[in-house]
Amino acid sequence: MCGIVGYIGHRDAYPIIIKGLQRLEYRGYDSAGIALFDGSDINLSKTKGKVEHLKKKAEESMSLKGGLGIGHTRWATHGIPNDENSHPHISNSGDLVIVHNGIIENYESIKKELTKRGYNFHSDTDTEVLVNLIEEVKKKEDVKLGHAVQIALSEVVGAYAIAIIDRNKPDEIVVAKLGSPLAIGVGENEFFIASDASPFIEYTNNAVYLADEEMAIVRLGKEIKLRKIKDDAIAYPNIMELKLNIEEIEKGGYDHFMLKEIYEQPRAILDTYRGRLNVDQGLIKMAGIDDNLERFMNADRIIIVACGTSWHAGLVAEYIFEDLARIPVEVEYASEFRYRNPVITDKDVVIAISQSGETADTLAAIKLAKANGAFVFGVCNVVGSSIARETDAGAYTHAGPEIGVASTKAFTTQITVLTLVALKLAKEKGVFPESKYHEFLIELESIPSKVERALESNALVEIIAEVHKNATNCLYLGRGYNFPVALEGALKLKEISYIHAEGYPAAEMKHGPIALIDQQMPVFVIATKKGHYDKVVSNIQEIKSRKGKIIAIVTEGDSQVKELADHVIEVPETIESLTPLLTTIPLQLLSYHIAVMRGCNVDQPRNLAKSVTVE
Ligand code: M6R
After folding, report:
1. Catalytic (active site) residue 2
2. What structural domains and CATH numbers belong to the chain?
3. Which of 29, 72, 232, 268 could be bridged to 99 by S-S, CB 3.0 to 4.6 A?
4. 610 is catalytic
């Protein structure tokens, strides 16, 4: 969702901010803007459309000098995407300029009050209300900017990450956070502000991540002043050293981040189990589980909360946990869980899965679970993210930055982590035969090389994509462990190629979707040898007799499905529980190629954001 970049220091702020906004494009946005202090005043340029468009506009219309500035990519919530609603927003006096990621829920009542006091508004945004509220507080209370921000934020309801500058105080940026992410990059006599570290990682590895309800005054030549918004308590900035490097957030010769990330999966899965899985000793080491083993062993059940692709990984995990560790599992959409008054007890373990670690609904579900006494374990990719900090314990996936909006390597690495957890608990509980356990460890270790082999289907997948690129509807079917893969395959196609697609458990087809099948309808069926193979073959026959076009994902060497399907894509054989790590690969490639062939913006599909920080 919205992206924030800011800079204060000895360099020109403009190129740093523009490049930073480009790095944040993956988050999803519809307009962009920048404000720079040129030594005497703040100049501003903003526009609907891409950062490239903003760059052109700014370079034609304003002075680009100055070592202080803030920039923004906006994903519209209040007010349509247009120039006026784009950020930065300026206060009525022209003194204060703000960028904001989040939603101020009570902005209408504040706007009414401010209007009564003579304030004018030029946009439909909640953000313009916030900057004027800060201005009003500053004037009325006769306080400095930092103090005014603090008072104003205590009056608002909602979520925010903000950066605000004052033309009368051009040696500082004031920032604050609740619910939306914000990091401060700490350089030599310079500071960077950003929604994540990607805009500043080439300048500094040192960063401070603001916690919820924290604000900071970032002043040139001074240490960062951090304090709690509510009770004014001073907090000490914890400067983290980041391991991220610049190559990881660039395309590395691929046309799109999504394709790069699909091809990174063998490495990402390996990095995710490296140091945790020791096949020789038959051990799985995970500090987050080892330190809290009692909670897991005494759990009545596990509740998994997540959204989107992470929710699909949760569904795979449900099968693994119940199958291997015999622990009852419920998988919930975080957005439903948080509002449906669920029964949660202190005997529950809640696992929250999130690539970004910033998804607002998942974060709220975690808070609800914690408030009811549950132990919450996080599975996140982004180190230091809000969910990673909010959970009681957790395990990172080591996928590396995922920039493409369509999740790919996050999915397979989440399944990898959750498989490790399930195996570990199965062993601790003694419910999984030792010989099978060992076979499982060996097989898990072989998955990266099997994913490499699954990736070799790319040329064939491209041919299949060419045949089906103009489809208007597609069906994805799978059973057991591959039912969530069918859902995930359909989601991938929908979100980047805008083709309507549905995922279904193959056996459910007879209860409705079979009516859709005709000769125009491509049906993607996951029919691997392990896992209800004969049943799926019957389902394929049912589709064939209704003239549907069948594209089947099968186990290497399969001959039976080959007879029936229009196309088959082979993946290596593995243990049934691990098949999702392989069967998902051709489906990712398929949606990628179809989207490219249809001329879609693969990495930044319309209306979507990489991290959904509003509910
Ligand atoms: O960062 P998270 O894993 O919490 O994100 C959850 C969903 O927003 C995300 O998986 C989304 O569905 C992806 N665009 C799917 O490709």
Report:
1. yes
2. 3-248 (3.60.20.10), 251-453 (3.40.50.10490), 458-597 (3.40.50.10490)
3. 72
4. yes
